[in-house]
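Sharing in case it's useful to others searching the archive later.

Someone asked me privately for the predicted structure of Nucleolar MIF4G domain-containing protein 1, so I'm posting the question and my answer publicly. Question first, with the sequence:
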Amino acid sequence: MSQDIILQIQSKAAASTVKESSRTRFMLETITALKTNNSRKIPNYDPSLLEHMRRLMRGLLHSKGPADENQLKISLSDLLNADQQGRWWVVGSAWTGRESTTPAASSSACQSVTAESWVMELARNQRMNTEVRRNIFCVLMTSEDCVDAFEKLLRLGLKDRQEREIVHVLVDCCLQERQFNPYYAFLGQKFCECSRTHQVTFQYCLWDRLKTLSDMTSFARGNLHQLLTHLVMSQALSLSVLRVVEFTELSEAEELKFYRKLLHTLLACCSQDTCKAIFSRISVQPHLKPFRDSLLLFMKHHLSSSPSSPSSLPRTSQILQDRLELVELIMRTQQPII
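And my answer, the predicted structure tokens:
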């Protein structure tokens, strides 16, 4: 059809007795170039612009990024019922709303409301008395894993004091668990690795908890032990977090048991390289010398091989003894040993 039109134009132009103008000549040359698909003879034609538009449209149609989130979710039922409910996708158009919902959507909405009310009730029971603490608590309780929780907490956009509440709520939730949940330990590790500010907040928060060890329940002390062990062994926190502890003045049985178990785990239940890294971090800092001396004295007195030692197997006792000698060498030389 298009070729017939072009041929008719060319034949009439050839039969015309009127003097051919520049505009007519330009039109005929352009039509001929279109007929022969010779784009180089079309004036001011840039094929790269067309290719750019094709790529742009292809990206808008197939991308899954921010552009995909801005697409209107118009269903077939919305189009079919536009006369009754209105065209909600048109700006300024009247819309009566969706009068009926499918059973699946209704069930999903009920489950969402039930879950939200359950979390909010739990937040009130845990004394989350501010909006910030409640939001953090809800994220911790409803996230799929530590990575999901970490990303959601960052998206809350908390600043300064509000951001510190993340650590306090995390530690509080961890200690409330009847059985230790590694989810809190790995989430705390990610925050410590993310920012120095979170490390300092964890340090002060743990100091407050260590001061009240004797008042804690047994499962809270166990959770605190495993949380602190994980953070130190993963290098998220330094062992200097224990520098507020007066090891030479410990008298409470529960405190002695807690620190013996903690240090025994750091010495005998990790690899030799990890043990070196843990104690090397505190060996090169001159201001920690009093802490190193009291810590070394406590370990030699309470963790040496004896009937009351936490290690019962001969092999474990030998590993513990070797690690004690290694740690003493690191602390005495005040240099990391490779």
